[in-house]
Amino acid sequence: MLSNEANRASTPAFDAVVPGLSVLRDVFANLYYAFPQDQPQGPWVLIDAGLPGSADKIKKHAEELFGANTPPAAIVLTHGHFDHVGALDGLLASWPDVPVYAHTLELPYLTGRSSFPPPDPTVGGGMMAYLSFAYPKHPYDFGTRVQALPADGSVPGLPGWRWVHTPGHTFGHVSFFREHDKVLVAGDAFTTVFAESGTATYTQKQEVHGPPAYFTPDWNAARASMELLARLEPEVAATGHGIPMHGTELRRQLAAFLPRFDELARPKVGRYAHQPATADADGVRSVPPPLVNHWVKGLAVAGLALTAVALAMAGNGKKDKRKGKKARSTSKGKADDSYRAWYRDSPAPQGASGPDWQSRRPGPFADQSPHGQDTATSQPSSGTSYAADLRYSDQRSRKIETQYP
Ligand SMILES: [Zn+2]
Ligand SMILES: [Zn+2]
Protein backbone atom coordinates (compact mmCIF):
# COMPACT_ATOMS: atom_id res chain seq x y z
CA MET A 1 0.00 0.00 0.00
CA LEU A 2 2.41 2.70 1.17
CA SER A 3 5.91 2.85 -0.19
CA ASN A 4 8.64 5.45 -0.32
CA GLU A 5 10.07 3.84 -3.42
CA ALA A 6 7.03 3.94 -5.64
CA ASN A 7 6.63 5.45 -9.07
CA ARG A 8 3.88 5.84 -11.64
CA ALA A 9 4.49 2.38 -13.07
CA SER A 10 4.19 0.67 -9.68
CA THR A 11 1.25 2.62 -8.33
CA PRO A 12 -2.34 2.52 -9.57
CA ALA A 13 -3.89 5.91 -10.21
CA PHE A 14 -6.72 5.02 -7.85
CA ASP A 15 -5.41 3.54 -4.64
CA ALA A 16 -5.93 3.23 -0.89
CA VAL A 17 -3.45 5.35 1.06
CA VAL A 18 -4.40 4.30 4.60
CA PRO A 19 -7.72 3.11 6.05
CA GLY A 20 -10.13 6.01 5.63
CA LEU A 21 -8.21 7.71 2.83
CA SER A 22 -7.96 6.85 -0.87
CA VAL A 23 -6.22 8.78 -3.60
CA LEU A 24 -7.04 9.39 -7.24
CA ARG A 25 -4.12 10.63 -9.31
CA ASP A 26 -5.80 12.73 -11.99
CA VAL A 27 -3.05 12.82 -14.63
CA PHE A 28 -0.67 14.89 -12.49
CA ALA A 29 -2.81 16.21 -9.62
CA ASN A 30 -4.16 14.21 -6.70
CA LEU A 31 -7.54 14.31 -5.03
CA TYR A 32 -8.64 12.29 -2.02
CA TYR A 33 -11.64 10.36 -0.75
CA ALA A 34 -11.78 10.55 3.06
CA PHE A 35 -14.14 8.61 5.29
CA PRO A 36 -14.33 7.24 8.85
CA GLN A 37 -11.89 4.35 9.25
CA ASP A 38 -14.54 2.16 10.85
CA GLN A 39 -17.15 2.97 8.21
CA PRO A 40 -15.64 2.16 4.83
CA GLN A 41 -19.01 2.67 3.16
CA GLY A 42 -19.14 6.30 4.23
CA PRO A 43 -20.29 8.95 4.89
CA TRP A 44 -17.40 10.43 3.01
CA VAL A 45 -15.79 13.72 2.00
CA LEU A 46 -14.02 14.65 -1.22
CA ILE A 47 -10.77 16.58 -0.72
CA ASP A 48 -10.13 18.65 -3.89
CA ALA A 49 -11.79 18.19 -7.23
CA GLY A 50 -9.21 17.40 -9.91
CA LEU A 51 -8.62 18.72 -13.40
CA PRO A 52 -11.27 20.08 -15.74
CA GLY A 53 -13.16 17.27 -17.42
CA SER A 54 -12.61 14.61 -14.77
CA ALA A 55 -15.98 14.73 -12.97
CA ASP A 56 -17.13 11.39 -14.41
CA LYS A 57 -13.89 9.71 -13.40
CA ILE A 58 -14.15 11.09 -9.86
CA LYS A 59 -17.76 9.93 -9.57
CA LYS A 60 -16.94 6.48 -10.96
CA HIS A 61 -14.33 5.86 -8.28
CA ALA A 62 -16.68 7.25 -5.62
CA GLU A 63 -19.19 4.62 -6.71
CA GLU A 64 -16.56 1.90 -6.42
CA LEU A 65 -15.86 2.93 -2.85
CA PHE A 66 -19.24 3.93 -1.53
CA GLY A 67 -21.85 2.53 -3.94
CA ALA A 68 -24.08 4.21 -6.49
CA ASN A 69 -25.85 7.44 -5.70
CA THR A 70 -23.83 8.16 -2.60
CA PRO A 71 -22.77 11.79 -2.82
CA PRO A 72 -20.23 13.07 -0.32
CA ALA A 73 -21.26 14.86 2.85
CA ALA A 74 -19.05 17.73 1.70
CA ILE A 75 -16.28 18.74 -0.66
CA VAL A 76 -13.36 20.50 1.00
CA LEU A 77 -10.69 22.32 -0.96
CA THR A 78 -7.02 22.75 -0.14
CA HIS A 79 -7.01 25.69 -2.58
CA GLY A 80 -8.60 26.99 -5.74
CA HIS A 81 -6.07 26.28 -8.49
CA PHE A 82 -7.48 24.78 -11.67
CA ASP A 83 -5.93 21.38 -11.01
CA HIS A 84 -7.73 21.15 -7.66
CA VAL A 85 -11.18 22.52 -8.55
CA GLY A 86 -11.33 21.83 -12.29
CA ALA A 87 -14.10 19.24 -12.11
CA LEU A 88 -16.07 20.94 -9.37
CA ASP A 89 -18.68 22.40 -11.70
CA GLY A 90 -19.52 18.97 -13.08
CA LEU A 91 -19.59 17.39 -9.63
CA LEU A 92 -21.88 20.06 -8.22
CA ALA A 93 -24.28 19.56 -11.11
CA SER A 94 -24.51 15.87 -10.17
CA TRP A 95 -24.58 16.53 -6.43
CA PRO A 96 -26.92 19.52 -6.06
CA ASP A 97 -27.03 19.46 -2.27
CA VAL A 98 -23.36 18.96 -1.46
CA PRO A 99 -21.71 21.95 0.25
CA VAL A 100 -18.17 23.05 -0.61
CA TYR A 101 -15.75 24.51 1.91
CA ALA A 102 -12.54 26.49 1.52
CA HIS A 103 -10.55 28.94 3.60
CA THR A 104 -12.13 32.37 3.79
CA LEU A 105 -9.03 33.90 2.08
CA GLU A 106 -9.52 31.51 -0.85
CA LEU A 107 -13.14 32.51 -1.43
CA PRO A 108 -12.40 35.51 -3.73
CA TYR A 109 -10.94 33.08 -6.29
CA LEU A 110 -13.87 30.70 -5.98
CA THR A 111 -16.64 33.28 -6.13
CA GLY A 112 -15.54 35.24 -9.18
CA ARG A 113 -14.04 38.20 -7.35
CA SER A 114 -10.30 37.95 -8.08
CA SER A 115 -7.84 36.20 -10.33
CA PHE A 116 -4.91 34.41 -8.79
CA PRO A 117 -1.54 36.10 -9.16
CA PRO A 118 -0.20 35.10 -12.59
CA PRO A 119 1.84 31.90 -12.74
CA ASP A 120 5.57 32.43 -13.15
CA PRO A 121 7.19 30.46 -15.98
CA THR A 122 10.52 32.18 -15.25
CA VAL A 123 11.16 29.98 -12.17
CA GLY A 124 12.67 27.25 -14.35
CA GLY A 125 12.91 23.61 -13.36
CA GLY A 126 11.30 21.94 -16.33
CA MET A 127 8.39 21.58 -18.68
CA MET A 128 5.63 21.91 -16.08
CA ALA A 129 7.06 25.30 -15.12
CA TYR A 130 7.62 26.44 -18.70
CA LEU A 131 4.03 25.58 -19.58
CA SER A 132 2.64 27.47 -16.63
CA PHE A 133 2.17 30.64 -18.64
CA ALA A 134 -0.85 28.87 -20.06
CA TYR A 135 -2.33 27.61 -16.79
CA PRO A 136 -5.69 29.18 -15.98
CA LYS A 137 -5.58 31.78 -13.25
CA HIS A 138 -9.02 33.28 -13.65
CA PRO A 139 -11.42 32.99 -10.77
CA TYR A 140 -14.05 30.30 -10.66
CA ASP A 141 -17.49 31.32 -9.53
CA PHE A 142 -19.29 28.68 -7.52
CA GLY A 143 -21.45 31.34 -5.90
CA THR A 144 -23.17 30.31 -2.71
CA ARG A 145 -22.22 26.66 -3.21
CA VAL A 146 -18.87 27.41 -1.59
CA GLN A 147 -18.52 28.69 1.95
CA ALA A 148 -15.85 29.30 4.57
CA LEU A 149 -14.44 26.41 6.58
CA PRO A 150 -15.55 26.52 10.23
CA ALA A 151 -13.38 28.90 12.26
CA ASP A 152 -12.86 26.27 14.98
CA GLY A 153 -10.61 24.16 12.74
CA SER A 154 -13.06 21.30 12.34
CA VAL A 155 -13.68 19.76 8.93
CA PRO A 156 -17.34 19.32 7.98
CA GLY A 157 -18.15 15.66 7.53
CA LEU A 158 -14.77 14.49 8.84
CA PRO A 159 -14.72 14.06 12.60
CA GLY A 160 -11.18 13.53 13.84
CA TRP A 161 -9.71 15.79 11.16
CA ARG A 162 -8.81 19.47 11.41
CA TRP A 163 -7.77 22.02 8.85
CA VAL A 164 -4.57 24.03 9.13
CA HIS A 165 -4.02 27.33 7.32
CA THR A 166 -0.88 26.87 5.21
CA PRO A 167 -0.59 30.01 3.03
CA GLY A 168 2.19 30.74 0.55
CA HIS A 169 1.25 28.61 -2.43
CA THR A 170 -2.08 30.44 -2.34
CA PHE A 171 -3.29 32.92 0.24
CA GLY A 172 -6.10 30.72 1.53
CA HIS A 173 -4.34 27.38 1.18
CA VAL A 174 -5.19 24.80 3.85
CA SER A 175 -3.97 21.33 4.73
CA PHE A 176 -6.00 18.64 6.47
CA PHE A 177 -4.70 16.57 9.39
CA ARG A 178 -6.11 13.44 11.01
CA GLU A 179 -4.70 13.84 14.47
CA HIS A 180 -4.89 10.40 16.05
CA ASP A 181 -2.64 8.73 13.47
CA LYS A 182 -1.00 11.84 12.00
CA VAL A 183 -2.27 11.50 8.45
CA LEU A 184 -1.68 14.73 6.53
CA VAL A 185 -3.34 15.84 3.32
CA ALA A 186 -1.00 18.69 2.47
CA GLY A 187 -2.43 19.99 -0.81
CA ASP A 188 0.33 21.96 -2.53
CA ALA A 189 1.92 23.28 0.70
CA PHE A 190 4.64 20.83 -0.21
CA THR A 191 4.82 17.97 -2.68
CA THR A 192 6.35 14.51 -2.95
CA VAL A 193 7.49 14.98 -6.53
CA PHE A 194 9.65 17.52 -8.34
CA ALA A 195 6.53 19.23 -9.68
CA GLU A 196 8.28 21.68 -12.00
CA SER A 197 9.85 18.86 -14.01
CA GLY A 198 7.91 17.17 -16.78
CA THR A 199 10.01 14.03 -16.45
CA ALA A 200 9.54 13.73 -12.69
CA THR A 201 5.84 14.49 -13.06
CA TYR A 202 5.62 11.66 -15.54
CA THR A 203 7.62 9.12 -13.53
CA GLN A 204 6.21 10.32 -10.17
CA LYS A 205 9.55 9.61 -8.49
CA GLN A 206 8.96 10.13 -4.76
CA GLU A 207 10.89 12.93 -3.11
CA VAL A 208 9.95 15.71 -0.70
CA HIS A 209 9.84 19.06 -2.51
CA GLY A 210 8.45 22.52 -1.89
CA PRO A 211 5.21 23.79 -3.38
CA PRO A 212 4.98 23.95 -7.20
CA ALA A 213 7.18 26.99 -7.79
CA TYR A 214 5.47 28.37 -10.89
CA PHE A 215 2.24 28.94 -8.94
CA THR A 216 3.64 30.10 -5.57
CA PRO A 217 3.48 33.88 -4.99
CA ASP A 218 4.73 34.16 -1.38
CA TRP A 219 7.87 32.17 -0.51
CA ASN A 220 8.31 33.32 3.08
CA ALA A 221 4.77 32.23 3.88
CA ALA A 222 5.31 28.98 1.97
CA ARG A 223 8.40 28.19 4.04
CA ALA A 224 6.59 28.93 7.31
CA SER A 225 3.71 26.69 6.23
CA MET A 226 5.98 23.79 5.34
CA GLU A 227 7.74 24.20 8.70
CA LEU A 228 4.39 24.17 10.45
CA LEU A 229 3.43 20.92 8.74
CA ALA A 230 6.80 19.32 9.52
CA ARG A 231 6.29 20.17 13.20
CA LEU A 232 3.14 18.04 13.10
CA GLU A 233 5.51 15.12 12.47
CA PRO A 234 3.17 13.46 9.98
CA GLU A 235 3.17 9.71 9.70
CA VAL A 236 1.71 9.98 6.20
CA ALA A 237 1.93 12.90 3.75
CA ALA A 238 -0.65 12.76 0.98
CA THR A 239 0.12 15.74 -1.23
CA GLY A 240 -1.51 17.44 -4.19
CA HIS A 241 1.26 16.22 -6.47
CA GLY A 242 3.30 13.06 -6.03
CA ILE A 243 2.71 9.63 -4.54
CA PRO A 244 2.04 9.69 -0.76
CA MET A 245 5.06 9.12 1.48
CA HIS A 246 5.23 7.90 5.05
CA GLY A 247 7.13 7.15 8.21
CA THR A 248 10.70 7.85 9.17
CA GLU A 249 11.84 8.47 5.61
CA LEU A 250 9.16 11.12 5.12
CA ARG A 251 10.14 12.92 8.32
CA ARG A 252 13.84 12.58 7.52
CA GLN A 253 13.34 14.18 4.12
CA LEU A 254 11.21 16.98 5.58
CA ALA A 255 13.85 17.65 8.25
CA ALA A 256 16.63 17.67 5.66
CA PHE A 257 14.71 19.85 3.22
CA LEU A 258 13.55 22.67 5.48
CA PRO A 259 16.91 24.15 6.50
CA ARG A 260 17.69 24.35 2.78
CA PHE A 261 14.23 25.59 1.75
CA ASP A 262 15.52 28.82 0.22
CA GLU A 263 18.11 26.90 -1.74
CA LEU A 264 15.90 23.98 -2.81
CA ALA A 265 12.38 25.40 -3.11
CA ARG A 266 12.57 29.18 -3.55
CA PRO A 267 13.43 29.95 -7.19
CA LYS A 268 16.80 31.58 -7.76
CA VAL A 269 15.13 33.74 -10.36
CA GLY A 270 11.44 34.38 -10.49
CA ARG A 271 8.79 37.01 -10.29
CA TYR A 272 7.93 36.21 -6.66
CA ALA A 273 11.34 34.90 -5.56
CA HIS A 274 12.10 37.93 -3.42
CA GLN A 275 8.90 39.92 -3.47
CA PRO A 276 5.51 38.38 -2.74
CA ALA A 277 2.16 39.14 -4.25
CA THR A 278 -0.21 40.46 -1.62
CA ALA A 279 -3.89 39.84 -1.04
CA ASP A 280 -6.69 40.44 1.40
CA ALA A 281 -10.18 39.07 1.90
CA ASP A 282 -11.26 40.59 -1.43
CA GLY A 283 -8.48 39.01 -3.45
CA VAL A 284 -5.14 40.06 -4.89
CA ARG A 285 -3.93 43.54 -3.92
CA SER A 286 -0.56 43.71 -5.68
CA VAL A 287 1.82 41.64 -7.75
CA PRO A 288 5.49 42.31 -8.49
CA PRO A 289 6.36 43.11 -12.09
CA PRO A 290 7.09 40.20 -14.43
CA LEU A 291 10.70 39.29 -15.02
CA VAL A 292 12.02 39.47 -18.52
CA ASN A 293 15.12 37.45 -19.03
CA HIS A 294 18.00 39.50 -20.42
CA TRP A 295 18.55 36.92 -23.14
CA VAL A 296 14.90 37.13 -24.12
CA LYS A 297 15.21 40.91 -24.18
CA GLY A 298 18.32 40.67 -26.34
CA LEU A 299 16.72 38.21 -28.72
CA ALA A 300 13.63 40.40 -28.98
CA VAL A 301 15.76 43.44 -29.86
CA ALA A 302 17.71 41.42 -32.42
CA GLY A 303 14.46 40.07 -33.85
CA LEU A 304 13.01 43.56 -34.18
CA ALA A 305 16.16 44.76 -35.92
CA LEU A 306 16.06 41.86 -38.37
CA THR A 307 12.36 42.41 -39.00
CA ALA A 308 12.99 46.08 -39.71
CA VAL A 309 15.72 45.20 -42.19
CA ALA A 310 13.51 42.58 -43.84
CA LEU A 311 10.60 45.00 -44.12
CA ALA A 312 12.84 47.68 -45.59
CA MET A 313 14.14 45.23 -48.19
CA ALA A 314 10.61 43.99 -48.98
CA GLY A 315 9.46 47.60 -49.39
CA ASN A 316 11.92 48.04 -52.28
CA GLY A 317 10.08 45.56 -54.46
CA LYS A 318 6.54 46.94 -54.94
CA LYS A 319 5.32 44.07 -57.14
CA ASP A 320 6.34 41.56 -54.47
CA LYS A 321 4.22 43.22 -51.85
CA ARG A 322 1.13 41.06 -52.18
CA LYS A 323 3.21 37.89 -52.46
CA GLY A 324 5.15 38.84 -49.32
CA LYS A 325 1.98 39.47 -47.40
CA LYS A 326 0.66 36.09 -48.39
CA ALA A 327 3.90 34.43 -47.36
CA ARG A 328 3.83 36.07 -43.97
CA SER A 329 0.29 35.00 -43.36
CA THR A 330 1.12 31.41 -44.33
CA SER A 331 4.10 31.28 -42.06
CA LYS A 332 1.99 32.61 -39.18
CA GLY A 333 -0.41 29.75 -39.71
CA LYS A 334 2.45 27.26 -39.63
CA ALA A 335 3.79 28.75 -36.43
CA ASP A 336 0.41 28.36 -34.79
CA ASP A 337 0.15 24.76 -35.90
CA SER A 338 3.60 23.85 -34.65
CA TYR A 339 2.89 25.54 -31.33
CA ARG A 340 -0.24 23.50 -30.92
CA ALA A 341 1.57 20.33 -31.93
CA TRP A 342 4.37 21.04 -29.49
CA TYR A 343 1.87 21.70 -26.72
CA ARG A 344 -0.13 18.61 -27.53
CA ASP A 345 2.91 16.36 -27.75
CA SER A 346 4.77 17.68 -24.74
CA PRO A 347 5.76 14.61 -22.78
CA ALA A 348 4.94 15.77 -19.28
CA PRO A 349 1.31 14.83 -18.75
CA GLN A 350 1.23 11.67 -20.83
CA GLY A 351 0.91 8.09 -19.69
CA ALA A 352 -2.20 5.97 -19.66
CA SER A 353 -4.35 9.07 -19.59
CA GLY A 354 -2.50 10.87 -22.36
CA PRO A 355 -5.29 11.29 -24.86
CA ASP A 356 -7.69 12.24 -22.10
CA TRP A 357 -5.28 14.94 -20.95
CA GLN A 358 -5.10 16.34 -24.44
CA SER A 359 -8.80 16.86 -24.62
CA ARG A 360 -8.86 18.86 -21.41
CA ARG A 361 -5.45 20.40 -21.25
CA PRO A 362 -5.35 23.77 -19.59
CA GLY A 363 -4.46 26.91 -21.37
CA PRO A 364 -5.66 29.15 -24.10
CA PHE A 365 -7.61 26.43 -25.87
CA ALA A 366 -9.64 25.34 -22.88
CA ASP A 367 -9.71 28.60 -21.03
CA GLN A 368 -12.73 30.19 -22.63
CA SER A 369 -15.12 32.40 -20.80
CA PRO A 370 -18.41 33.91 -21.84
CA HIS A 371 -17.13 37.06 -20.20
CA GLY A 372 -14.05 37.28 -22.35
CA GLN A 373 -15.30 40.49 -23.87
CA ASP A 374 -14.88 42.18 -20.53
CA THR A 375 -11.17 41.78 -20.54
CA ALA A 376 -10.51 44.56 -23.01
CA THR A 377 -12.34 47.12 -20.95
CA SER A 378 -11.01 45.95 -17.61
CA GLN A 379 -7.35 46.16 -18.52
CA PRO A 380 -5.49 48.87 -16.69
CA SER A 381 -3.27 51.19 -18.64
CA SER A 382 0.26 49.96 -18.91
CA GLY A 383 2.72 51.18 -16.33
CA THR A 384 0.24 51.30 -13.49
CA SER A 385 -0.73 47.66 -13.42
CA TYR A 386 1.15 46.74 -10.28
CA ALA A 387 -0.41 49.40 -8.13
CA ALA A 388 -2.11 48.20 -5.02
CA ASP A 389 -5.25 50.11 -5.80
CA LEU A 390 -5.97 48.12 -8.92
CA ARG A 391 -8.67 45.89 -7.63
CA TYR A 392 -11.46 44.26 -9.43
CA SER A 393 -13.35 42.90 -6.50
CA ASP A 394 -16.44 44.81 -7.54
CA GLN A 395 -16.51 43.12 -10.92
CA ARG A 396 -17.97 39.84 -9.86
CA SER A 397 -17.80 36.91 -12.24
CA ARG A 398 -15.72 38.69 -14.81
CA LYS A 399 -12.84 37.02 -16.46
CA ILE A 400 -10.15 39.35 -15.25
CA GLU A 401 -6.90 37.50 -15.60
CA THR A 402 -5.61 40.08 -18.02
CA GLN A 403 -5.45 42.68 -15.28
CA TYR A 404 -1.82 41.71 -14.68
CA PRO A 405 0.83 41.29 -17.32
ZN1 LIG B 1 -1.70 24.73 -6.58
ZN1 LIG C 1 -1.62 21.63 -7.66
TrEMBL record:
- Which residue ranges have biased composition labelled Polar residues? 370-385
| Basic and acidic residues bias spans | 333-343, 391-405
Start and end residues of each stretch annotated as Disordered = 315-405
Q: Which residues form a coiled coil?
A: none
Give the domain of life: Bacteria
Q: Which residues form the Metallo-beta-lactamase domain?
A: 26-241
The residue ranges flagged as biased composition, category Basic residues, are 319-331
Which InterPro entries does the entry mention?
Metallo-B-lactamas (IPR001279), NDM-1-like (IPR050855), RibonucZ/Hydroxyglut_hydro (IPR036866)
PANTHER family attached to this UniProt entry: METALLO-BETA-LACTAMASE DOMAIN-CONTAINING, METALLO-BETA-LACTAMASE DOMAIN-CONTAINING PROTEIN
The protein's name in its UniProt record: Glyoxylase, beta-lactamase superfamily II
* Organism of origin: Hymenobacter arizonensis
